[in-house]
Each structure stands twice: as structure tokens, then as C-alpha cells.
Protein: Pyrroline-5-carboxylate reductase
Organism: Azospirillum endophyticum
Amino acid sequence: MTVESGASLLLVGCGKMGGAMLDGWLAAGTASRVVVVDRAGLPPSLAGDARVTLASGADSLPDGFVPDVVVLAVKPQVMEDALPSYRSLVRPGTVFLSIAAGKTIAYFERLLGEGAVVVRSMPNTPAAIGRGMTVAVPNSRVSAAQRALSDRLLRAVGDVAWVEDEGLLDPVTAVSGSGPAYVFFLVEAMAKAGEAAGLPADLALRLARATVSGAGALLDASPQEAADLRKAVTSPNGTTQAALDVLMADDGLQPVMTAAIAAATRRSRELAG
Ligand SMILES: NC(=O)c1ccc[n+]([C@@H]2O[C@H](COP(=O)([O-])OP(=O)(O)OC[C@H]3O[C@@H](n4cnc5c(N)ncnc54)[C@H](OP(=O)(O)O)[C@@H]3O)[C@@H](O)[C@H]2O)c1
């Protein structure tokens, strides 16, 4: 495989995440050939794309097909059944790249064998629009080139950070994995509070939604940190200051958020296997 020719990939599971990644790889030219295993078949948009073929399972891959990367994008609960049939693909030149929540490197080494080259990663739902945040951790057999290739593949759906300590994937799951839900709840909470302050329900929801998504876009477009943008809209003794005095009090949002992230981290540890 060369960067110019693109990688040879096996995508196991072509649902929301796998499908979004596949679109990104094809658009960026990261993949020269992708074999997809998915019970539902190929998305209609890919019919006729010569780079993509469908296989019904590990035992029906095209003759001579040796993937550089096997991307594991099935639900965690079907991994146990699906994975053992891919043991025959384990070799130093093939990296198994998982995006399955909670499935540890030890789990993949157990089901694939000790020699498996594994990258475990945790994306989040904005990956569906190419705006995901993924954190990845390699096992000891991942080469520099395999890490770079995995990085390019994950980058197709957003930003990527790497950690060496797999234990960090629990707080990562709590912050970026589950995080989009907290932001959606912020919209709900602001709308409910706006309604309590006298706004019609539909207008309150519209304002809250536009404000959260607009502020997110502003943060994204700005080189400034969130704290600087916050200070920029806070005049002394003004309306924003009055709200932030409540939100930033000792018993305000910070202790609630810290407790929420700690609860999610604990749950991630309990569910990991
Ligand atoms: N969605 C997210 O926001 C998100 C975020 C972080 C991590 N993840 C991880 O991403 C992975 C995929 O999630 P998703 O939301 O994309 O799920 P999904 O939309 O359900 O996609 C999974 C796909 O795999 C197919 N499949 C099931 N069994 C299979 C098998 N044995 N071999 C090949 N394909 C099989 C499913 O087909 P059927 O529908 O016919 O079963 C489905 O098309 C999960 O492990 C999840 O933990 C997702």
C-alpha cells in the first residue's frame, strides 16, 4: 500500500458510523479498494463505484484480497459472534481498527489471537456529518505506518487524538463519546427555562437550538478559547453576568457537570469488556 494508491480496506458493518466513514474515505481517496461486509448490503449511493464490493462474510472475501485494515464497525453486542471468523486475516501487515464502544484491546486480542494488530477508538455522533471527535489507542504491535493510516481513516469523519493509556478511554467516553447528549440536553434545558421566563414554547425551543448551534459554529470558526469568547459577551453587571453568577457559583453548573462526567466514566468502566 502507498499513500498515493490508497489503502485496501475491509469494512465490517456499514451502518451509520461505518457508512459515514466509507463516504469520507472514498471522497478523500484514502481507500483504493474497500470490501464491505454488511447484512443490509451496500448503500444505494455506492452502487456502481468500482472501488467498493460487497461480501457476505469473512469466508467469502474476493480471491487474494489481503486488507491493510479491517475496520470493525458493528454494534458491540454482535462483535463476539462476528469477530472469530476474521482470525484468518490476523498478520503483522493488517491492523484491526475498532470503533465499537467499550470493547477493549484485551477483548480483541482474546477473540482474534495474541498476534493481532489492534487500534481501539472511540468516535462520537457528529462523525455522521464529518465533525466527529475520535480518540484512539494502539496496542503494542501497531507500527508507525499503521498508526498513520488509522489516523487518516478516522480523520475522514472529524478530528483525532491519540493516547497511549487505554484507561483514558473511559473519561474520553464520558466527555466526547456521550458529550453530544449533554449539549442537546442544554438546548432542552434552555428552552424550558425560557418558557418559564415567559416565552411561548415553540419560540423558546427555536431560540435555544439556534443559540447552541450558532455558538458551537462560532467557537469552531474562532481561534479563541471558549473562556475568551464567554468573557467577550459578558459586560460587567449586565444580563450575561447575572446568569453566569448563577451558573458559575460554587453550587452552579461545574459540580453538576463534574458529577455527570464521573458517573459516565464509572459506567464506562463497568461496561468495558
Ligand atoms: N453511532 C454513534 O454515534 C457511535 C459513536 C461511537 C461509537 N459507535 C460505535 O460504532 C459502531 C457502529 O455503530 P452504528 O451506530 O454505526 O451502528 P449501526 O448503524 O447499527 O451499524 C452497524 C451495521 O452492522 C451491520 N451488522 C450487524 N451484524 C453484522 C455482522 N455480523 N457482520 C457485518 N455487519 C453486521 C448492521 O446490520 P443490521 O442493521 O442488519 O443488523 C448495521 O448495518 C458500534 O460499535 C458503536 O459502539 C457509534
